[in-house]
Write a structure and sequence with these properties.
The complex is a heterodimer of chains A (about 130) and B (about 280).
Chain A: E1 6-11, H1 14-30, H2 35-54, E2 59-68, E3 71-80, H3 88-91, H4 105-112, E4 115-120, E5 126-133
Antiparallel strand pairs in A: 1-2, 2-3, 3-5, 4-5
Chain B: H1 6-14, H2 16-29, H3 38-57, H4 70-86, H5 90-98, H6 101-111, H7 116-159, E1 164-167, E2 170-176, H8 181-198, E3 202-209, H9 215-230, E4 234-238, H10 242-251, E5 259-261, H11 264-274
Parallel strand pairs in B: 2-3, 3-4, 4-5
Antiparallel strand pairs in B: 1-2
Helix pairs in contact in B: 1-3, 2-3, 2-6, 3-4, 4-7, 5-7, 6-7, 8-9
Classes of the chains: A alpha+beta (about 130), B alpha/beta (about 280).
Bound molecules: adenosine-5'-triphosphate and magnesium ion.
The site of magnesium ion has 5 residues of chain A, from helix 2.
């Protein structure tokens, strides 16, 4: 297991999204995640990191390897100081997008992980925490 | 402002072997020598120390932008560039110069042991000079690094359009790596053009080399498929591994009737089948 069990990765440009995926892949491997779970987690990272960049105007991904009570997992928080999401229910609807996407990023990411927590308000930025257990 | 004294310069000039030995020791101790051949390290340290001494002899002071430092600056630029290619980070490259401080300070300490006021002043002068040279290295290192990354990106872009004819009427497009929008656009356009040029009936998009299929990648794929269909050709997506298939389902992606196959061989088999071609072993 990695000597460091938490850290922060910036998400500002397209390249950072690629690096965030690579970091998540590495961390998930360190956690001993199965290929199928790892693929789901990395895909969720891709969605949330891109949202952070595109809609949040950039931000950070905090990562943490959790090792507690005989279970191991990877927890990631995507933070930005952007405009926030005015209507959470709408944003969490399959197929709804304010831009030109498919509108499946948020809902899809939620289905790809074990725990999904969304904290946002207009003008207050957005925080999304996801966890996947091995 | 006080300047570097001739006495300091002479001390450095006359003690180069000692300075070099200690400098290399320091570099080894802080791990700045990894990936470097001993031979290269010896040569680089000797050359650089020589350039510092000769730069000072020309009376340039610490203004490393002055013409008298041209040679030293160019040398550092070359060094930065070669180290960037070796994959060293800017920390290691800057350490190269900053590590020279210890040996020089030690030398001056014994040289000016009876004159602490001059010692302090001269230490400051040397320190300023090495800092300036170190900063120059970091700056040029970053530039070289950016140049390397830019070149790699361009190479990737060029490599990104391998449209392969598998059979009369069957084209394959193996996609490899990250499908960022810019590259995907290029790939898509060249596939469409090749379909027109070859009059192909079936195009196979192989995503075996794409590690992550998310909504953006899917969107690109679907646009390509739609365009291919509009041209009257058929499309098969291959390389949909089990973990990718499951992820697509969880994301809620609708592949709109696109035929998918786990690997390229299966896709080719299906394509030939559709064209009414049978392949059999000769007995
Ligand atoms: N970090 C964020 N800050 C502000 N708004 C956001 C953020 N993340 C998502 N949103 C809003 O929620 C909507 C839905 O996001 P979601 O990721 O589901 O779809 P999308 O990004 O539009 O399309 P895609 O399917 O390509 O991801 C976005 O269109 C956007 O309006
Ligand atoms: Mg999205």
């Amino acid at each position: 297991m990695s000597p460091r069990s938490s850290g922060t990765h910036p998400i500002n440009i397209e390249q950072d999204v690629v690096l965030a995926r690579q970091l998540a892949r590495k961390l998930a491997t360190e956690c001993g995640m199965r290929l199928i779970d790892l693929t789901k987690m990395v895909t969720a990272v891709s969605e949330l990191a891109r949202n952070t960049m595109v809609y949040g105007g950039g931000g950070d991904m905090d990562w943490q390897i959790i090792d507690e009570n005989s279970r191991v997992g990877l927890r990631l928080t995507f933070r930005d100081e952007g405009p926030g999401i005015p209507d959470i229910k709408l944003a969490m609807t399959d197929g709804w997008t304010s831009g030109s996407g498919l509108g499946l990023g948020l809902t899809g990411a939620k289905r790809l992980v074990d725990e999904f927590e969304l904290d946002t308000a207009p003008g207050q930025g957005t925080r999304i925490t996801i966890t996947r257990w091995t | 402002m006080a300047a570097l004294q001739n006495s300091t310069l002479d001390a450095m000039k006359n003690n180069q072997p000692q300075l070099l030995t200690e400098w290399i020791k320091g570099l080894e101790a802080n791990g700045a020598t990894r990936n470097l051949k001993e031979q290269d390290l010896k040569q680089q340290t000797a050359e650089f120390l020589h350039l510092v001494v000769s730069g000072l002899e020309k009376g340039n002071g610490q203004n490393v932008a002055a013409p008298g430092w041209d040679e030293a600056r160019q040398y550092l630029e070359k060094l930065s560039h070669s180290r960037a290619l070796l994959g060293q980070d800017s920390h290691q490259t800057a350490s190269f110069i900053f590590s020279l401080k210890g040996p020089v300070f030690g030398l001056l300490q014994s040289h000016y042991k009876d004159n602490p006021a001059v010692l302090a002043e001269q230490l400051w002068e040397v320190s300023e000079l090495l800092d300036a040279l170190g900063m120059h290295t970091i700056r040029t290192f970053q530039k070289s690094r950016e140049a390397v990354i830019k070149r790699q990106q361009e190479e990737l872009l060029e490599l990104s359009t391998p449209v392969v004819k598998l059979w009369d009427g069957v084209l394959a497009l193996p996609m490899i790596g990250t499908l960022d929008s810019q590259r995907t656009q290029v790939v898509m356009e060249s596939l469409l053009q090749r379909i027109v040029d070859t009059g192909s009936e079936i195009a196979i998009i192989d995503i075996t080399g794409v590690p992550t299929v998310d909504t953006l990648v899917a969107q690109h794929l679907l646009k390509t498929v739609t365009a291919i269909r509009l041209m009257g050709a058929d499309c098969i997506i291959s390389g949909v591994r089990p973990q990718i298939a499951q992820t697509i389902v969880h994301l809620g992606l609708d592949l709109q009737g696109v035929v998918t196959k786990a690997n390229l061989a299966d896709a080719l088999k299906l394509a030939l089948n559709r064209l009414g071609i049978t392949v059999s072993k000769t007995v």
